[in-house]
Amino acid sequence: MAVTRATKRWAALGAALAVVVAAQQGLQAADRQQVTAPRFAVDPLWPKPLPNHWILGSVIGVGVDSRDHVFIIHRGDSTLNQRTEAGADATPPIGECCRSAPPILEFDPAGNLVKAWGGPGPGYVWPASNHGITLDDKDNVWIGGNGPRDSHILKFTHDGQFLAQYGTPNQAVASTDSTHFGRVAKIAFDAPRGEAYLADGYGNKRVAVIDMATGKVKRFWGAYGNTPDDARMPPYDPSAPPAQQFRNPVHCADPSNDGLIYVCDRPNDRIQVFQRDGKFVKEVRVAPLTRGDGSVWDIAFSRDPAQKFLFLADGKNEKIYVMDRQSLEILTSFGDGGRQPGQFFAVHSIATDSKGNIYTTETYEGKRLQKFRYLGLGQVKRGHQGVPWPAAPAPAARGR
To answer: Is residue 390 part of a domain?
Structure first.
């Protein structure tokens, strides 16, 4: 009888230990499904409605100034249908609503429209297809263009006064050209060195570095630091060896604080990293089975001094990747394809403000600007989170 009781006690103890071990293993498995990363929630009430029956066309650039004012550039003149979208712009007008907003719009942190401007003017040639908008350390506004003969870039003051045109429009250029550009997608800055980095781009297949004050080309390079080659390439094949040249478009070339240049080789589904002189450092492929428009559209860095995180806009798979900038590991992602807040239709450009918030724009039929509020670092789902919808407010306590 004593042996039987002892046996039962040992069996019960063993069962209890098994439960503890299983619980620990479950917690460890759960931990492996979580990662520490920036957390975000879409702000469905930002920005506020536009005045004057204005609407946006394809929004193909976003930048943030020193006061956290958000600038966008869009193509209302060429991407809004006057029969179905912009009837007030038709000749004669076919309705009260709607009309294209001016190409460049500035919003304050609360989402109020502050100023709208842009388009053709004296002293410069407005791009046939404007593309990309960034602000330098003096809050000057720079834009590129990806029209067939957009071989130049433009520089304006914060309020839209023309400052400079670098390159001559309507030139047939090559990736080894030291005077003009080939349909620039985006411009970024290394202000302490007085240099601007051009993702050059839709016609050329290179990164070009220019003097910010004069526009003079200082150096340029192609994929892996090779001399850029404009030879026609076959369509991207995920199973083929990595292409030794960039494909069009080279969609971003952003310098980090520690002197590395992160390049969006969009149709090749990869980020390539270089030193300032064009020496290749490393690369990562993102969603490498993606064909067509590719997966690597635009990047932005977190605003901490170390720029620990990199945010990547993927306009084909309709998500934002949150990556560790140094290792280029994808920690998590959010978003989905769709029309509702927090979803995307061709998420094209991305920027961050000093508070850590993310701003995105959408091209094609997306035609939208969105804000994702930074909620601080925390545990988030490793892998894909889905739409980062705001948490529902707690129900109010009932009185007695």
So the answer is: no
Q: Is it true that the peptide bond before 192 is cis, omega within 30 degrees of 0?
A: no
Q: In angstroms, rounded to a whole number, what is the distance separating the alpha carbons of residues 200 and 179?
A: 13
- Cβ within 8 Å of residue 290, ≥6 positions away: 269, 314, 316, 317
What is the number of domains present in the chain? 1
Tokens representing 70?
């958000």
Residue 210: what are its φ and ψ, rounded to 5°?
-125, 160
Q: If we measure between CA atoms, which residue out of 236, 265, 250 comes closest to residue 175?
A: 250
| Cβ proximity of 253 and 265 under 8 Å | no
Cα–Cα distance, 45 to 172 (Å, whole number) = 44
What does R_g of the chain's alpha carbons equal in angstroms? 25
Q: Cα-flanking dihedrals φ and ψ of residue 281, to 5°?
A: -110, -55
- Distance, in Å, from the CA atom of 396 to the CA atom of 299, rounded to the nearest integer, reads 40
Q: What is the pLDDT of residue 260?
A: 98
> Which CATH number belongs to the domain containing residue 289 in this structure?
2.120.10.30
DSSP state of 246: P
Q: Is residue 399 part of a domain?
A: no
Q: In what order do the strands lie in the sheet with 162-166?
A: 130-135, 141-145, 153-156, 162-166
- Count Cβ atoms below 10 Å from residue 258 Cβ, excluding itself: 10
Tens digits of per-residue pLDDT, 90-143?
Answer: 999 999 999 999 999 999 999 999 999 999 999 999 999 999 999 999 999 999
Query: At a CB cut-off of 8 Å and minimum separation 6, what does 321 contact?
Result: 286, 311, 312, 314, 330, 332, 333
Per the structure, the complete domain to which residue 303 belongs is given by 38-384
Report the DSSP beta bridge partners of residue 68: none
**Which pTM was predicted?**
0.91
Task: Give yes or no for a contact between 201 and 182, defined as CB atoms under 8 angstroms apart.
Answer: yes
Q: Is residue 210 part of a domain?
A: yes
The neighbouring-strand residues paired with 12 are none
Q: Is residue 104 part of a domain?
A: yes
> Taking a C-beta distance cutoff of 8 angstroms, is the pair 186, 252 a contact?
yes
Which residues make beta-bridge pairs with 148? none
Q: Are 141 and 104 in contact (CB under 8 A)?
A: yes
